[in-house]
Amino acid sequence: MSIDQTLTGQERLAELDLDQLRRLVGLVEHDTDRDPFPVSGWDAVVWVVGNATQAAAHFRLVWGMELVAYSGPETGNRDHHAYVLRSGAVRFVLQGGVDPDSPLLDHHRRHGDGVVDVALEVPDVDRCVAHARAQGATVVREPHDVSDEHGTVRLAAIATYGRTRHTLVDRSRYTGPYLPGFVARSAPGVPPVFQALDHVVGNVELGQMDRWVDFYHRVMGFTDMAEFVGADIATDYSALMSKVVASGDHRVKFPLNEPAAGRKRSQIDEYLQFHGGPGVQHLALATTDILGAVDTLRARGVEFLPTPDSYYSDPELRARIGEVRVPVEELRSRGILVDRDEDGYLLQIFTRPLGDRPTVFFELIERHGSLGFGIGNFRALFEAIEREQERRGNF
Ligand SMILES: [Fe+2]
Questions:
Q1: Which of 127, 275, 293, 380 is surrounded by the fewest CB atoms within 10 Å?
Q2: How far apart are CA 164 and CA 278, in angstroms?
Q3: In this structure, how many other beta carbons lie within 10 angstroms of the beta carbon of residue 143?
């Protein structure tokens, strides 16, 4: 039996050690020998956006990410721009069509700005694909090597919900800045605000959540982390169901949501309509200092969902959360939510949608032992989201 104690290249680049990573994103021990689909960690979150050049500047100058690599017309890629950005162990790739016939532009016309690929680093691409295929997964890209002067990367891709895919990447024989075809590129930046990716949430259609939970169980060997269904996360008007699956050591966590019947349209239905089907709803960015991050991001123009003042004065909540590292007043003044479970507590806050459509958004999360996702906050959060939906006339 081997307990996986290795860091991915991105994590080493972020100068994170395993203890720090464990605290940041809540890792657990895991026996990789018994894992049919071993996953080392996140590789990249790949986006299609309407204007990658401006989005890259936004992620650099607002979200404190560092530009590390680039592909585009100047490097022989006539189809699109792709900017690779990094913050801590998190890698984003922002793609935007250049050629009027680029398939990325068709994708963007339908779905708007969003995530198309949650790429995972794996030690053995072929073994993962063989297992996935045997379990009925759609292999959208067969295992293949790509090489340049920095070495060779082995890649494959499998389909998941909507038009999202998981590219599987073995970069153990590669030293370049991202992938062959990309050149190193840097630009002046601003101080970072987050260090790791905690979880990526998918929204799927009514009645499809269990199908995708089963997909992650069978195809990728993921296990259930937590389950909250129906009434737990319903308000008077709107409801959703959510289950969470995770890779063996919990480095990769995928909550999956589906709409549930409510008196009005749920936020998941709104997402499905405006995204044009299932897709990534939010990405949770782990930070060691959520108070500083929120202050910095607000000063740089980021808008967070407001939290009702009543949330902080509620005696039930005060009793439930107990002692946290700062006075509740510090959380109240920033709208930061807090939740506690048997393992500890977490602090979290959600942004407004990042683009023009009411689809993908970010969460900031600072964990203190809790391995949860803020279940106690769902109701308070959804009520805040519904007030926003109402303002947009979609409720
Ligand atoms: Fe979340």
A1: 127
A2: 8
A3: 18
Confirm or deny that 144 is annotated as ligand binding: no
Q: What is the reported pTM?
A: 0.94
Beta strand pairing status for 279-286 and 361-368? parallel
Cα 285 to ligand 1 centroid, rounded to whole Å? 9
Q: Write down the pLDDT at residue 2.
A: 45
What is the pLDDT averaged over residues 138-147?
Answer: 98
DSSP-assigned states of every residue in 5-33: -PPPHHHHHTT--HHHHHHHH-----BGG
- 40 within a domain of the structure (yes/no): yes
CA of 286 to the centre of ligand 1 (A): 10
Q: Are residues 24 and 142 in the same domain?
A: yes
* Å from CA of 36 to ligand 1 middle: 27
Asked whether residue 282 is marked as a ligand-binding residue, the answer is: yes
Q: Does residue 1 lie within any of the structural domains? A: no
Give CA–CA dist 121/109, Å, rounded.
30
pLDDT digits (tens, 9 = 90+) for 77-124: 999 999 999 999 999 999 999 999 999 999 999 999 999 999 999 999
CA dist list (Å): 347 to 104, 215, 241, 274, 320: 36, 30, 22, 29, 14
Enumerate residues 6+ apart whose C-beta is below 8 A from 315: none
- 3-state SS class at 317: helix
Q: What is residue 37's predicted lDDT score, i.e. its pLDDT?
A: 95
**Mean local confidence (pLDDT), 193-201:** 97
CA-nearest of 285, 269, 274 to 386 is: 269
Which three-class secondary structure state does DSSP give residue 171?
A: strand
Taking alpha carbons only, the member of 31, 29, 94, 24 closest to residue 59 is 94
Q: How far is CA 68 from CA 155, 178, 207, 305, in A?
A: 20, 8, 41, 31
Q: How far is the CA of 333 from the centre of ligand 1 (A)?
A: 21
Residue 199, annotated as binding a ligand: yes
Q: Which domain holds residue 79?
A: 9-184
Pairwise CA distance, residues 39 & 250, whole Å: 10
Q: Are 218 and 295 in a shared domain?
A: yes
In a domain, 191, yes or no: no
Distance from the alpha carbon of residue 29 to the mean position of ligand 1, in angstroms: 22
